[in-house]
Amino acid sequence: MNSTMITRAAWLSLAACAPLLAATPPLPAEHLTVTTVPPNDAHRIYVLDEAFSNEIDSRVHLFDGNTYRRLGQIDTGFNPGFNLSPDGKTSVVATTYFARGSRGKRTDVVEFTDNSTLSVTHEIVLPSKRAMTLPTYFNVGYSSDGRFVYVSYVTPAASFGVLDPAKSTVIGEIDTAGCVLVIPSGPNRVSSLCESGKLLTVTLDAQGHEASRAFSDAFFDPDTDPVFVQGVPMTGGYVFISFLGEVHEIDFTGAAPAIKAPWSLVSAAEKGHWRPGGTQMGAIQRHSNKLYVAMHEGGEGSHKDGGSEIWVFDMTSHRRIARWPLAAHKLAHVLALQVSQDDAPLLFAATDHADLAVFDALTGELRHVEKQMGETPWLILTP
Amino acid sequence: MRSIDRLFEKSSRALAQRTSRRSLLAALGQVLTGAALIPLLPIDRSARAATPADGHAKADKAAVDDPKSCDYWKYCAVDGFLCSCCGGSANSCPPGTTPSPITWIGTCHNPSDQRDYIVSYNDCCGKVSCGNCECNRNEREKPMYRPSRNNDLNWCMANADSNYHCSVSVILGVAEK
């Protein structure tokens, strides 16, 4: 077919369609708008993407577990800490910026984002001491009444900052004698994990200054079986899981942490072969009292490996009630787990291929796989 | 080195202002502040040296000797990008970056000479993540409450420019038997 024939064919086709085109009304003019964030929902999650290969550009994705839609984004700078206010209405980001993008003067700052608009409402500039490390619940956090925000500092000397989010001020800094991270409890207590296997608990006065401090007894051995710093929230406290699968439940409701006798995720035969691991290896559904843990087969040094299976435990009987292998769903190993706290709970699992899997938390049925939830989704929070 | 001295002096003064003498000494023992100090520390961790049977899967011989492979024997506690894939080498930072004066350490087994070596893992700082040859091995790595053994901390934290680029592995000496 030469070019003349092609031209004729094109004109004939256009002529045949012309009546149809004329009968179709034109699209109306559009108005450019900004989408609003839907009201908070138990199935909403906040997924922190560390963006490890471009670490100055980390971000939090809001994702709806009902519609499987992304709802928006919060920018979180370099190597951030992230948390939510007790009422879930505010996101708090502790992060660092460099004046020239990847270089230049360092500014450490805590930023507050209104979760109904995803706009930054205010910020508090910190001394350049913020702990730059993996995201956990304990890099930055609120007191239970929202009066104070605590920020972990490591220079590498360890301490924490006490902030007043209402007045946008730094109240002060409290040395922690080498103990790290901020585990808030009640309106005025902050605990930190110590190399001795103890917890340091600092009690603040009404102004946010140190009133007293106390150490717990040692509850783990950092040489033989250290606990992950990624504590898992439970009713009234946190669970700390050890590298070999011991579960340390700590009640933080009293003046001093109450540490229960540990129990094990693994049988004697499994111990040392099956291990918990990842960046957020466990999640607890508080109403059904179930603990979900990412488990893998591996040896010493595999504690950051994701889970090839999710194991489900009854927190009362300490019995394993389910094993959910992920290979059956062609999913990569799971690094981060989170579960919603409603009566129809969803289990969210971020893999080391950056996919986000959504399961029915009661049955283990896979509901959805959201591909490519950022690059390195390492922490998932729920309101 | 002068800047390292200044940094060390500054951080020591800051520590001294906030801590007791005993806790200052404890902190100094735990956090290694530069390669020059490390040989002075009484380290005997040979019993904990990495072996091929540890958590990292057995690697083939060529990879164990290849500084661009995550299986290279010296990388037994690296979690980051290998500087050897970023314009540097196993023990030199890429052009335009600055070594971190503070670091974490590991003890790795060299199968070629059957010796255990104490290795300093320094970060190279001042540029954005290299993004090449990510390596995540954590043999005897500990959580951040034991900072001298922790590779999650950004060890560029005390650099004038604390952006993290990549990690090197520097032999400090043979581990004492």
Can you tell me the overall shape of chain B? globular
Order of helices and strands of chain A: HEEEEEEEEEEEEEEEEEEEEEEEEEEEEE
Q: Give the strand line-up of the largest sheet of chain A.
A: 6-5-4-3-2-1-29
Q: Helices and strands of chain A: which structural class?
A: mainly beta
Structural class of chain B: alpha+beta
Q: Tell me which protein chains meet in the greatest interface and how many residues each side has.
A: A-B, 44 and 49 residues
Query: What is the number of E strands of chain B?
Result: 6
What is the radius of gyration of chain A computed over CA atoms, rounded to a whole number of angstroms?
A: 25 Å
Tell me the series of helices and strands of chain B, N- to C-terminal: HHHEEEEEE
Mean pLDDT across all amino acids of chain A: 95
Provide the β-strand percentage band of chain A: over 45%
Biggest beta sheet attributes of chain B: 4 strands, antiparallel
Low-confidence region ranges of chain B: 1-56
Strand content of chain B: 15-25%
Instruction: Catalogue the unreliable spans of chain A.
Output: none
The main sheet of chain A comes to: 7 strands, antiparallel
Considering DSSP H and I runs of 4 or more, what fraction of the residues of chain A is helical? under 10%
How far is the N terminus from the C terminus of chain A?
A: 65 Å
Overall spatial form of chain A: globular
